[in-house]
Predict the structure.
Amino acid sequence: MTTQKKTNRRTFISDTVKGGLAVSVGLSAAAPLLQSFSERQSYVPGNFKTGFDQQPLPYEYNALENIVDAMTMEIHYTKHAAGYSKNVKDAAVAEKVDMTKPLEEVLVKISSYSTKMRNNAGGHYNHEMFWQSMRPKKENNAPSGKLMECIVKDFTSFEYFKKQFGDAAKTRFGSGWAWLYTNKNKKLLIGSTPNQDNPLMDISDIKGMPILGIDVWEHAYYLKYQNKRAEYVDNWWQVVNWDTVSNRFDQL
Ligand code: MN
């Protein structure tokens, strides 16, 4: 580790502690950052309107080859994700949810619904966002503009942000997701959730608006990477679509 990086890390820890983190264990490399209690607020993201139907994949199944293989992409999209979409609609009928309203409205009150709704509303929402958050791989793939400025402000550097997000993804025990999300004040935060939960849900330990998520269920990587989740996570940065992520951030 270089002196510069050490300094950045110390500055980061110092700022984060000043920011009111209740538990500092989240700062170790082995655990994702924890959100302070005062930051843990649900909010309804008015600009975001996700529907209940599965949208077309924005690229071919083989478009992310070498990072995400075509067979994984096809099974993931046509079986796993399509299943969540079908099941969330079944749950919506059974629980009298108006499907002309955005899914976000259900997610922020998910404690009022069944476990079937929680799993499938989350599953559908998370995957719809996941497909849009990727594109064919790019050299030196990084965000620009306002999002990059805020990443540097909130995490000290893009590299340190990737390290923290990667740690959250690699250390999520079992199935789940790691997230880049924002609180009401548009501060960027990193965390992870189990199963198909996400930070919009009122039952989540971390709360805010997700702008980027990585699926770390084994179905997302096992055919190509087997048990090597860390390799999948490290490779995945090459296919992140920073344009759509920035667009989500700009809409907040
Ligand atoms: Mn998945």
